[in-house]
Amino acid sequence: MTLLHLEAVTKTVPLPDAAPLTILHGIDLEVSSGDRLSIVGRSGSGKSTLLNLLGLLDSPSTGTLTFDGRPAKKFSSAERDRVRGRDIGFIFQQFNLLQGRTARENVMTPLLYATGKQFWKRSTLAAEMLERVGLGHRIDTMPEKLSGGEQQRVAIARALVRGPRLILADEPTGALDVETGASVMALLDDVALSTGAALVTITHDPAIADLASRHLLLDHGRLSTVRDDGRPNDLVAVSRRLPHAPQPAASEIGHSGVAQGVGA
């Protein structure tokens, strides 16, 4: 089942005292239930801008983006919020945990906006998800008492507690050591496989990208398929040949969308 479909999508943002900057050029992409795909690209290639579109945090300048068969441009602001909260789980490099709140309380946060059973059983559901990510013994621990890998596992549990159909992981291991990062990615992969969710990992690290079964390359805002059979050496070689994409100086950025999209 197709969750996301992008056709000829572009993203252009205004710059003060300069011509508009086009970050994404003619993006064609289809993401279906159960997909495990990686999007790799150097700094400035437009990865974060693409993530914002996939997560319905932003809208294309031109082209079409549909979620679950419905054009995203027809969603109201409230509908976008509901879809993001119910169907999309976000995992970032920075854990963004609430200080002064236990692991369980952090994982419960998305359930505060749920309805019915998920709301009334939020404490139990949070504890069960922490158990699933191997932190059942740490449910009442504060974030500052957790290691980096444990904090990322709490963030993963928080992203997955509502059973999203699409998991978007933006540099999810960037703040972790190699061994812990591999463990976190294995966990994400296992959860995605067991639930049938689509897992999209956006990264600059070919080694992390190789863990997916479908590899895409974002180069200067243009998306292309590297391989669909999981052979890693091709992705590594292509990525290493890429020059760094040019970026505007910070003083040139006058739009919040650019601050998120350029240079990531």
TrEMBL record:
Keywords: ATP-binding, Nucleotide-binding, Transport
Highest rank taxon of the organism: Bacteria
Keyword Transport applies: yes
Residue span(s) of domain ABC transporter: 4-245
UniProt GO molecular function: ATP binding; ATP hydrolysis activity; transmembrane transporter activity
Family to which this protein belongs: Belongs to the ABC transporter superfamily.
Protein name (database record): ABC transporter ATP-binding protein
Organism: Microterricola viridarii
